[in-house]
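Z., the sequence and structure:
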Amino acid sequence: MDTAIPDPREILSTRHFSQPREALYAAFADPQRLARWWGPAGFRNSFDVFEFRPGGEWRFTMHGPDGKDYPNRSVFHAVEAPGRIVLEHVNAPHFHMTITLSPQGGGTWLSWRMRFDDAATRDAVARIAIPANEENFDRLQAELTATP
């Protein structure tokens, strides 16, 4: 379980899920499923490229409830089934994300660690990203419940 206090450049969001980590990993690895739950409440996604492997690219557009489109480009640095995914969000705001899935209490402890280039960027993003991460976890839980 990854609960170390983050450095000033980091946002750490965590949650316990009752499903095994293989189920959470599968929800990340399948682009059709990932498109259904990725992002805050009210968003939907269009994936252009999803190469779920080290060095693979992930290009997609998040369509906001406000009608705006938010293009995203990331590169996967590590894909280790069923416990760890590391990606770099290339466009602004630039950050590295480490997703860790640890068995705990008959379920899975999800750790979502975002490391920005500096503390000022982290602070500017935190007021949106921290509640958005919780909404993302809610959507993941709904996906896990809907898809056995």
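The mean pLDDT is 95. The longest helix spans residues 119-146.

Let me know what you think.
H.
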